[in-house]
């Protein structure tokens, strides 16, 4: 029992440390990718290829003056970044970073905790993440910060709806709220993205919006709001806000990979498992297979992080009314249609075929029939 | 000395329970005592959080998660959202009137009396640890009960929500002649 507890503690600390380390090097990756897309050199001074740049940035932020505006609400001003950072770190607890490892004859999950409400936990923590921005923006006692905070709140609430409904389709398919069961249900290459192409696109868009990444970075749009909710922040407090964005990005990439791209599953995993167990024995082989699974998950996470950055440096920002229209008039109805199609496909017994058939019918109606009605209503006005 | 022994013998769950209870009472008191409405909301969020923790201690994970998502995650965000738009710098002076104080004291006292009587009269069912199903509060059990025994009330509640939602949309709809901004 004691070894199990110790291994579990090591796993939890490792997950925590990895989230921080990933966030640290995401800042570096962001700069390098931005430089590549904009045809610049990028950071190359601190260490070889500039890989010590995140440490230099962190050091700079720590040694800057920690300033609190005179008319700010002092305690809430401090609470804001703290809440943003801690909520960002909390949600990694339920993500399965691998299958089980065998230590001292017992199987231990490579996961913080396997609760049967895992996906609801992520959802709840994501909805709490907005408090950091909201409280910090209000406590700054600055009009621009307040506007940024209010935008963040309305944006998060709007996009949570479409996110939740596209998530319902996944829950409908798996029949479980536990992230581990959802991942285990996508054995081999039986990934959810093939069943849920539309749900995947909706979820991806919503995670961009929840992370305040660029097409949706209205809360901090610098040409309208100076720097949005963190206008008054400096030093490591601002560092925590920026850092929490990167942690959020890592977590949402992990969630996307687990829900739609099969988490630690990869094609031919049974073959690899049997080979490893055959040549290294039951325990070592099993642990090695788990390690390969974890590596696959991280490759998927890296892919999503790259995708997020690619989108950020390619697409322009939405206008505010466009943002709201996309959420309420486009994404939410499409998510509901997707849920209905999924429910019908699950009932039919051949979910893969009928999901695509349903999507094709919806596409035909939307692109074929809908324009006719639209023209009529326009002429009636 | 007796109390010290008692504290020493507390189990981990009891420690967690007392910690959460004290924190939730602190949050609740902060909600009604703080002068700034934004602070009240922040205290209230703390209270919801600790209540979720107590649900977790009771092994009702689904209830805890839903409490966080619905109350702390959605409703309190809207509260905060609205309060930030209002400029509530002026303090309300209702409590300085004597009649207000007296009626508030009477109402509060009566409510407290009713609560005490209700708690005294309530039957405390001792749960037998040995044959108690630990999965009672889990989502699978809850779903089965909800969709078998309470199917009709559940559907009626969803219809009620639909009506409320369409009512809200109707209220917010721009009428002819309204200003366009």
UniProtKB/TrEMBL annotation, chain A:
It is a multi-pass membrane protein. The chain crosses the membrane at residues 6-25, 75-98, 118-140, 161-179, 246-268, 288-311, 323-341, 353-373. InterPro entries: NADH_UbQ_OxRdtase_su1/FPO (IPR001694), NADH_UbQ_OxRdtase_su1_CS (IPR018086). It is an enzyme of class 7 (translocase). Its main location: membrane. Its EC number is 7.1.1.-. Keywords: Cell membrane, Membrane, NAD, Oxidoreductase, Quinone, Translocase, Transmembrane, Transmembrane helix, Ubiquinone. One of its GO terms (molecular function) is quinone binding. Signal peptide: none annotated. It is found in: Cell membrane; Membrane. GO terms for biological process: aerobic respiration. GO terms for cellular component: plasma membrane. It catalyses: a quinone + NADH + 5 H(+)(in) = a quinol + NAD(+) + 4 H(+)(out). NDH-1 shuttles electrons from NADH, via FMN and iron-sulfur (Fe-S) centers, to quinones in the respiratory chain. The immediate electron acceptor for the enzyme in this species is believed to be ubiquinone. Couples the redox reaction to proton translocation (for every two electrons transferred, four hydrogen ions are translocated across the cytoplasmic membrane), and thus conserves the redox energy in a proton gradient. This subunit may bind ubiquinone. Belongs to the complex I subunit 1 family. NDH-1 is composed of 14 different subunits. Subunits NuoA, H, J, K, L, M, N constitute the membrane sector of the complex. This is NADH-quinone oxidoreductase subunit H. The lineage of its organism: Bacteria, Pseudomonadati, Bacteroidota, Cytophagia, Cytophagales.
UniProtKB/TrEMBL annotation, chain B:
The chain crosses the membrane at residues 12-33, 40-58, 64-88, 100-119, 150-172. Coiled coil: none annotated. Keywords: Cell membrane, Membrane, NAD, Quinone, Transmembrane, Transmembrane helix. It catalyses: a quinone + NADH + 5 H(+)(in) = a quinol + NAD(+) + 4 H(+)(out). The keyword Kinase does not apply. It is a multi-pass membrane protein. GO terms for molecular function: NADH dehydrogenase (ubiquinone) activity; quinone binding. It is found in: Cell membrane. GO terms for cellular component: plasma membrane. Its main location: membrane. Belongs to the complex I subunit 6 family. NDH-1 shuttles electrons from NADH, via FMN and iron-sulfur (Fe-S) centers, to quinones in the respiratory chain. Couples the redox reaction to proton translocation (for every two electrons transferred, four hydrogen ions are translocated across the cytoplasmic membrane), and thus conserves the redox energy in a proton gradient. This is NADH-quinone oxidoreductase subunit J.
């Amino acid at each position: 029992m004691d070894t199990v507890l110790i291994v579990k503690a090591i796993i939890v600390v490792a997950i925590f440390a990895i989230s921080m380390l990933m966030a640290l090097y995401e800042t570096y990756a962001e700069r390098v990718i931005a430089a590549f897309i904009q045809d610049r050199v990028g950071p190359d001074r601190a260490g070889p290829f500039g890989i010590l740049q995140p440490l230099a940035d962190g050091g700079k932020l720590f040694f800057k003056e920690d300033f609190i505006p005179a008319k700010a609400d002092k305690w809430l001003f401090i609470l804001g970044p703290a809440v943003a950072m801690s909520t960002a770190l909390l949600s990694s607890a339920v993500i399965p970073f691998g299958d089980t490892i065998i230590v001292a004859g017992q199987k231990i999950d490579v996961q913080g905790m396997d609760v049967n409400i895992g996906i609801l936990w992520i959802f709840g923590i994501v909805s709490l993440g907005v408090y950091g921005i909201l409280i910090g923006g209000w406590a700054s006692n600055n009009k621009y910060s307040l506007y940024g905070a209010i935008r963040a709140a309305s944006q998060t609430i709007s996009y949570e709806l479409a996110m939740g409904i596209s998530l319902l389709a996944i829950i409908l398919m798996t029949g479980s709220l536990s992230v581990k069961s959802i991942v285990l249900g996508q054995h081999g290459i039986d990934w959810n993205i093939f069943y849920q192409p539309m749900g995947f696109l909706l979820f991806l868009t919503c995670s961009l919006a929840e992370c305040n990444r660029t097409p949706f970075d209205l809360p901090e749009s610098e040409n309208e709001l100076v720097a949005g909710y963190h206008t008054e922040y400096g030093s490591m407090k601002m560092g925590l806000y920026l850092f929490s964005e990167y942690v959020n990005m890592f977590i949402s990439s992990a969630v996307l990979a687990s829900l739609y791209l099969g988490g630690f599953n990869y094609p031919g995993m049974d073959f690899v498992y049997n080979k490893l167990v055959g040549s290294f024995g039951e325990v070592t082989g099993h642990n090695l297979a788990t390690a390969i699974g974890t590596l696959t998950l991280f490759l998927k996470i890296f892919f999503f992080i790259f995708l997020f950055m690619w989108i950020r440096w390619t697409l322009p920002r939405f206008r505010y009314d466009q943002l709201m229209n996309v959420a309420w008039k486009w994404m939410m109805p499409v998510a509901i249609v997707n849920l209905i199609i999924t429910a019908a496909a699950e009932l039919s017994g051949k979910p893969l075929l009928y999901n695509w058939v349903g999507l094709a019918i919806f596409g035909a109606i939307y692109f074929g029939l809908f324009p006719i009605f639209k023209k009529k209503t326009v002429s009636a006005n | 000395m007796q109390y010290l022994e008692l504290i020493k013998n507390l189990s981990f769950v009891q420690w967690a329970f007392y910690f959460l209870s004290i924190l939730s009472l602190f949050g609740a008191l902060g909600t009604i005592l703080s002068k700034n409405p934004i602070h009240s909301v922040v205290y209230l969020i703390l209270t919801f959080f600790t209540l979720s923790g107590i649900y977790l201690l009771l092994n009702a994970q689904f209830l805890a998660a839903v409490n966080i998502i619905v109350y702390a995650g959605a409703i309190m965000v809207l509260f905060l959202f609205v309060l930030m738009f209002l400029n509530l710098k002026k303090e309300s002076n209702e409590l300085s009137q004597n009649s207000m104080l007296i009626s508030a004291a009477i109402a509060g006292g009566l409510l407290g009396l009713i609560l005490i009587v209700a708690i005294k009269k309530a039957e405390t069912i001792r749960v037998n640890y040995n044959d108690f199903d630990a999965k009672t509060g889990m989502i699978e059990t809850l779903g089965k009960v909800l969709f078998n025994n309470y199917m009709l009330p559940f559907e009626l509640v969803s219809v009620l929500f639909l009506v409320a939602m369409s009512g809200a949309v109707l209220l917010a709809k721009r009428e002819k002649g309204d200003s366009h901004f």
